[in-house]
Design brief:
With 386 residues, the chain is an alpha/beta fold. It has 14 helices and 14 strands.
Length: 386
């Protein structure tokens, strides 16, 4: 078993009241990975927008690391990696995490999703950390009985459970009715400075940003595209992202004779400029919490065609900022895309209203401020009862 800890001090500066005026609260974020993904990108944004006068952050991953870990280090926050070999048990991971939390003297543990939540809640209890918070980034705590049991056990040791959408929060309440009073929703947010409003380009280009994995259901999007080009042969689709289904989806593109219509761009670091080159955004996902990619597309000013799943209806106002359609249906997705292509005069209106909605409801500064106030309130409650 190895435990890697990298400590780098943050020099960011901002002002806000503190619970303890003598020193900032120490908050440890714990996730299973720091690979490229929506959850991990959100952790980087939390690190970027944290009020460092009031909070000192530490990030822990219980498995793999990637670019988000490097981004957090560049922001000046320490990152710790806990790995266990195949011969070592989950007990080893738990004891290493407990040791790290004891050494860190943390005020708040903030775990992300169910498995990390289970490890973090137990380790925090053993380490004597006073406040434990969990965020569920998908829809509910997971589909298996094991995930539900881990969720319920961890919740007994947790002060507040957050869903990133009202939909996700309600599913968490159903999964653990005993803890429902300690659950609330805090919508995800994005950095509007990184996604400047440009509005849609008046060209027949759709764009999608998604991990190439089963829950994103890119197959449905490809099949819908094969229907769209029958009436709009000039339509082009750009797909940004990578994942385990890449080879299968590339093969499907060839089977559907979409080689000249669909472009796989892979992982990209110029997403804002790519979004600003398109006419509209399309998502075929089967499951979402609060999709950062939808928020980013709306911030740029793109009209949206997306599936009516998870938190998507909380983001998209159907008929005002875009269109919502049933999931797993190439025909209905294609029909909505064709409707969008048939009336580009609506694109600017959809895009403007979409940008305004993100500014009003899904700004990263609002999200971070709500989490920081939650930390203050919970620590203050503990201090009153100690």
């Amino acid at each position: 078993m190895t435990l890697q800890q990298i400590h780098i001090h943050n020099s960011a500066d901002s002002a806000s009241p503190r619970v303890d005026q003598r020193q900032p609260l120490r908050v440890c974020h714990i996730s299973m990975t720091l690979l490229t993904g929506g959850l991990e990108r959100l952790l980087v944004e939390i690190g970027r927008h944290c009020d460092s006068r009031d909070f000192q952050l530490h990030f822990v991953t219980l498995d793999q690391v990637g670019q988000p870990a490097r981004d957090l280090e560049e922001l000046g926050w320490p990152v710790s990696v806990i790995k266990t070999s195949s011969r070592q048990s989950k007990w080893g991971r738990l004891t290493s995490l407990t040791s790290l939390l004891k050494d860190g003297s943390f005020d708040v543990i903030h775990s992300h999703n169910t498995l990390a939540h289970f490890y973090a809640a137990v380790a925090a209890k053993w380490a004597g950390v006073p406040v434990v918070v969990n965020t569920q980034h998908g829809r509910g705590c997971g589909s298996s009985w094991k995930a539900r049991m881990q969720f319920r056990i961890a919740n007994l040791l947790t002060d507040q459970i957050i869903g990133v959408s009202e939909d996700a929060t309600e599913l968490c309440r159903r999964d653990d009715p005993i803890s429902r009073r300690r659950m609330q929703a805090i919508w995800n947010g994005i950095d509007l400075k990184r996604f400047a409003f440009t509005g849609p380009q008046q060209n027949p280009i759709g764009i999608s940003v998604a991990r190439l994995s089963p829950e994103k259901d890119i197959e449905t999007l490809l099949r819908a595209t094969s229907l769209v080009i029958k009436s709009h042969p000039d339509f082009r689709l750009k797909l940004i992202g990578d994942g385990p289904e890449r080879e299968r989806l590339h093969s499907l593109r060839e089977q559907l004779a979409l080689g000249s219509h669909v472009e796989f761009l892979g992982e990209r670091h110029d997403v804002p400029s790519l979004l600003s080159s398109a006419g509209f955004f399309v998502s075929s996902s089967r499951s979402e919490g609060i999709s950062l990619t939808l928020l980013e597309a709306m911030a740029v000013g793109l009209p949206i065609v997306a599936t009516d799943v998870g938190g998507n209806p909380e983001i998209i106002l159907d008929g005002q900022t875009g269109r919502l359609v049933p999931s797993k249906s190439p025909e209905t997705l294609a029909a909505a895309m064709c409707d969008m292509l048939a009336d580009p005069t609506l694109w600017n209106l959809y895009g403007t209203l979409g940008r305004q909605r993100v500014e009003d409801q899904f700004n990263i500064t609002y999200m971070v401020a709500r989490y920081e106030q939650l930390y203050r309130d919970l620590v203050h409650q503990r201090q009153l009862h100690s």
